[in-house]
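Hi everyone,

Forwarding the result from last night's run.
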Amino acid sequence: MRHEEIQTVIIGAGQAGLSVAYHLSRRGAPCVVLEANARVGDTWRQRWDSLRLFTPARFDGLDGFPFPASPHAFPTKDAMADYLEAYARKFALPVRTGVKVDRVTSTEGGFIVAAGDLEIRAEHVVVAMATFQAPRVPSFAAELDPAIVQLHSRDYRNPGQLRKGGVLVVGAGNSGAEIALELARAGYRTWLSGRDVGRVPFRIEGTAARLGLARLVLRGLFHRVLTLDTPMGRRVRPKVMTQGTPLIRVQPRDLAAAGVVRVPRTASVRGGRPVLDDGRELDVANVVWCTGYVPGFTWIDVPVFDRQGDPRHVRGEASDAPGLSFVGLHFLYAMSSTMIHGVGRDAEYLAARIAA
């Protein structure tokens, strides 16, 4: 067993973890970033093939390094992965790849981070892995006919993975809408199931967005107005936490034009087929679950979680374990907290607290 002592351990080298490391480095505070994947950015590389960011490049850069693309372009997931790798290299951030953290426990004066044969004693631990760790699929999924191809959005790559026949996409947020649109355009009869999450009321790729509406919504509304410091933000947060972010790029009319059929929530299974809230059975050959994730923080052996497995925190700092922090959580401080243009503010806040 190898032993080290480092002031701050950051777990995860995505945009959240790199942002914290950047702000700590600027303050001269020693840290290390542990990343389970072989390369920085691999979490993005492993997503579906056609994925592009939902926001234009001018909102996709982290602090200190603008995204190297036309400001109105929507970068691919691989371009984002390469950008994160370049970001870590540009600022010589102390990232160790291929290091999977197995457990975090508390000890006198700090924490023990265990990763294989390595143990690191740290005063501070920042969990920068969001709450997108373990796919959430309803229990009744196991009752579907075994002949039906089932994929979670985490494992979906392209239409070639599916059987011929209809596709039910469960979950009508941004990922579900994008995947449903792709499948319909690929010739699959496609149903999109789930509640309406709302939409950005303009075309994010259009002229009005370029002239200022995108900045007004993404930087103004999502970043400055819908925060825990405003009455509107505190009122909106519970709805956002349960229903997700409004559709940003795909509009309902895009789905209708492609032939995607909107249907109610998928509620159960009957005779091996999915059943909707209104009682209808759908005869489909494929189901793509865009139903989100569970927190997946069981490897953190510190009593800071509620019954749903979400950390109890105040602006990222664990309420019951000083020195343990989270960044990248959904609406951690603002609607923009999980967005690339919003994570830097949360990271800078936590870095300042740690450095102090």
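The chain has a mean pLDDT of 94.

Cheers,
N.
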